[in-house]
Amino acid sequence: QLQLAESGGGLVQPGGSLRLSCVASGFTLDYFAIAWFRQAPGKEREEVSCISADGGSTTSADSVKGRFSVSRDNAEKTVYLQMNSLIPGDTAVYYCAARRVGATMTISLYNYWGKGTLVIVSP
Q1: Which of helix, strand or coil describes residue 79?
Q2: Of 2, 4, 34, 27, nearest to 114 (Cα)?
């Protein structure tokens, strides 16, 4: 059974950093594009970053460009989201999602989702 599990969330002060992990089980990660999305309280889920199956292509939302970076280790079945210079506006539940074809920032095109990890940015 294909599963994704996020970890690494927590409470961090503004300006701090966190690294989120998304671990895949039940399938070979090599053939799947992965994206990170987030949902803040009372808001719709929004795209953050995505990475192609081979890791050669990444895309990030304007709101996180220059602060967040996405990477992957297919041998470890893990995708990472490095988040630096965090601001209170980054507070949200962060989800990773997988799809078997090309990377995209379109939420509706992802078939498999993790349950999310909570990030709180607060003094």
Answers
A1: strand
A2: 4
